[in-house]
Specification:
mainly alpha, 2 domains, elongated, single chain
């Protein structure tokens, strides 16, 4: 199944008109933002050249904190606490 067809099927299933997409958020991975075959590039080229791409700040923060925490026990404990809170919240929200 082609990439374009898959995106269209998902959007139709969710009752979203592909031409109305004006913003796209991602984790910043190359597959999402790359020029070939990145999802952002596809939307810019095929759907809306004025598309506004957002690299999620939460993902950036996770990357930074993970790298900063290496070798600093207090930061590792802080990261573990935040992860526990997130997982607990996710568990209760999914009920």
């Amino acid at each position: 199944m082609s990439f374009i067809l898959l995106i269209n099927l998902i959007l139709v299933h969710c009752c979203i008109n592909i031409c109305q997409i004006t913003r796209f958020g991602s984790d910043g991975a190359k597959v999402m933002t790359g020029t070939d075959p990145g999802v952002t590039e596809f939307f810019l080229r095929e759907i809306n050249p004025q598309l506004f791409n957002i690299h999620f700040i939460v993902h950036k923060l996770a990357l930074c904190s993970g790298q900063a925490a290496e070798g600093v026990p207090v930061l590792k404990d802080y990261e573990a606490t935040l992860t526990s809170i997130f997982l607990l919240q996710e568990k209760f929200l999914s009920c």
